[in-house]
Design goal:
Blueprint lengths: L1 H18 L1 H16 L26 H12 L2 E6 L2 E7 L1 H10 L1 H4 L27 H16 L5 H19 L9 H16 L9 H13 L4 H8 L7 H31 L8 H11 L10 H14 L2 H16 L1 H15 L14 H14 L8 E2 L4 E3 L2 E3 L4 E5 H5 L42 H18 E4 L12 E3 L1 E3 L6 E4 L2
Parallel strand pairs: 2-6
Antiparallel strand pairs: 1-2, 3-6, 4-5, 7-10, 8-9
Helix pairs in contact: 1-2, 7-8, 7-18, 8-14, 9-11, 10-11, 11-13, 14-15, 14-16, 14-18
Subcellular location: Endoplasmic reticulum membrane; Microsome membrane; Mitochondrion inner membrane
EC number: 1.14.14.80
Cofactor: heme
């Protein structure tokens, strides 16, 4: 306890030095007031310190694991404090399904003060991801889904683009011969070019320096440290010298991405032709033009910037990381890799390209990818939710506009659902007849009304790219290379530890 008090006093001293005396006193007073005025009958939770709450316990890059352990003590619904900000954490499939599906009217909104990626404060639009639940969200989400379908999502026309990018990826891989290489950047290029063709109407070459810089900025935005993530929700941390540098670097990369999207939108304004709608940006501009007489229209350039940014970010990073996990699991489990290849060969033969119609004919491959989604849990948390009204949930009182964290990791690693949850085992998704069995407890794209907008696109890319690569190559570690761990790194998302591989051509 003495050490905790000393740590708290040190933190406050730095805060006062960073803010200036009067400002720090005011902030401290407000924090204390917020802590004193806590609502009654909240879910239980770990004891926090004055002012900073549970901040020090959350200064870890494995927060989903910490929350999963805390749920064993406090239950599937508990309370934590990020500084003075109260957060309700949902763990386990039953609690998450009950909140996001059965009580969707209450738990489908966003917390009003969320300052998370995409960057609040840099542009004023909320887009689809950050928009509270209501008519505007419904309108923009419906428009986005229809537009994505118009540009091929879920259709054979987009399969061709994905396979074209996969062939470009394979050509890049072949340049390395039998030498080990890191596939991370290549996968990002491939996946990003798919979403770029839909959103921007263009693709980028693998050696395009500006595009490489953009992908690096995406990596940085999706890989904040634990302290930087806390600084997003607990603003006083941003002014501490040791935190401020990293926070400003994070913001700089966010600005880089925003400026790139704005540039693409300006170019579309200059070349817009309503008789030739080339991509998502054009479709949005056409809708905006139709509503130009409506002074209440929300189809503005600020909203377009945020929506495109969200599609670009989500359509690049999580899918490419999922594919990296899939290849790593194949390397670590060569018998599973061989079985997947045998199934692909039996269905496609020597000359046929994979298609989504083949997915139902490849139950073992589909089971393997389902197990990748479960075990890797690339997005261990959903985008934070917010309550739209006061509610009573599982006997506890939860106020309106409460920050709600949804711990998807706790579902995918629940030993009651998945015996030996840390073991990679595709047979979890196969019945006695060898047929694929969908498990509702795999919620890699979240669930309920805020389920990921790009789920269908991501599933198309993962299946087509994975089967194409396994059909042509066998993946191994370089001779003498240490075996990579199956445990990943939590930096915003759950990524595998960097590794090199050899792509050995198959006959």
């Amino acid at each position: 306890m003495v050490a905790q008090v000393a740590t708290t006093m040190s933190f406050l001293s730095e805060l006062i030095a960073a803010f200036g005396g009067l400002q720090a006193v005011l902030v401290t007073a407000l924090c204390v007031l917020a802590m004193v005025m806590r609502p009654k009958n909240l879910p239980p939770g770990p004891t926090g310190l004055p002012i900073v709450g549970n901040v020090f316990s959350l200064m870890t890059n494995a927060t989903p694991v910490v929350y999963t352990e805390w749920s064993k003590k406090y239950g599937d619904v508990f309370t934590v404090y990020r500084g003075p900000m109260m957060s309700i954490v949902l763990n386990g499939y039953a609690a998450i399904h009950e909140a996001l599906v059965k009580n969707a009217d209450v738990f489908s909104s966003r917390y009003s003060s969320t300052a998370s990626v995409p960057p609040a404060g840099i542009i004023s639009g909320t887009g689809i991801v950050r928009e509270p639940y209501g008519p505007k969200l419904k309108e923009h989400r419906k428009f986005a889904l229809v537009s994505l379908r118009d540009f091929g999502v879920g259709k054979r026309s987009l399969e061709g683009k994905i396979l074209e990018e996969t062939r470009a990826l394979q050509q890049e891989m072949c340049k390395h011969g039998g030498q080990g290489f890191c596939i991370s950047q290549m996968l990002q290029n491939t996946v990003s070019n798919v979403i770029c063709s839909i959103v921007f109407g263009r693709r980028y070459e693998y050696d395009d320096k500006k595009f490489t810089d953009l992908l690096m900025a995406i990596d940085r935005v999706f890989s904040p440290t634990s302290v930087e993530r806390l600084a997003l929700s607990f603003s006083p941390l941003r002014y501490i010298p040791g935190v401020r540098k990293g926070f400003l670097d994070l913001r700089k990369n966010q600005v880089t991405l925003v400026n790139h999207v704005k540039k693409r939108i300006r170019e579309h304004h200059e070349t817009f032709d309503e008789n030739d709608i080339r991509d998502f940006i054009d479709a949005f501009l056409l809708e905006s033009k139709k509503r130009q007489e409506d002074e209440n229209s929300t189809f503005t350039d600020e909203e377009l910037t945020m929506i495109v940014l969200q599609l670009f970010l989500a359509g690049t990073h999580t899918t490419s990381v999922t594919l990296r996990w899939a290849l790593l699991y194949m390397i670590l489990h060569p018998a599973i890799q061989e079985k997947v290849q045998q199934e692909i060969d039996s269905v496609l033969g020597p000359d046929q390209d994979p298609s989504m119609v083949h997915r139902s004919q490849m139950p073992y491959t589909e089971a393997t990818l389902a197990e990748v989604n479960r075990l890797a849990s690339v997005a261990p948390f959903s985008v934070p939710h917010g309550t739209s009204s006061d509610t009573t949930f599982r006997g506890y009182n939860i106020p309106q506009d409460t920050f709600v964290e949804v711990n998807l990791w706790s579902v995918h690693h629940d030993p009651q659902l998945w015996p030996e949850p840390s073991k990679f085992d595709p047979t979890r998704f196969l019945n006695d007849a060898g047929k694929f069995v969908k498990r509702n407890e795999v919620i890699a794209f979240s669930t309920g009304r805020r389920i990921c907008l790009g789920e269908q696109l991501a599933r198309m890319e993962i299946f087509l790219i994975f089967t194409s690569l396994l059909r042509r190559f066998t993946f191994k570690l370089p001779e003498g290379a240490p075996k990579p761990p199956e445990e990943g790194v939590f930096l915003g998302i759950h990524s595998p530890v960097p590794f090199k591989l050899i792509a050995e051509p198959r006959n």
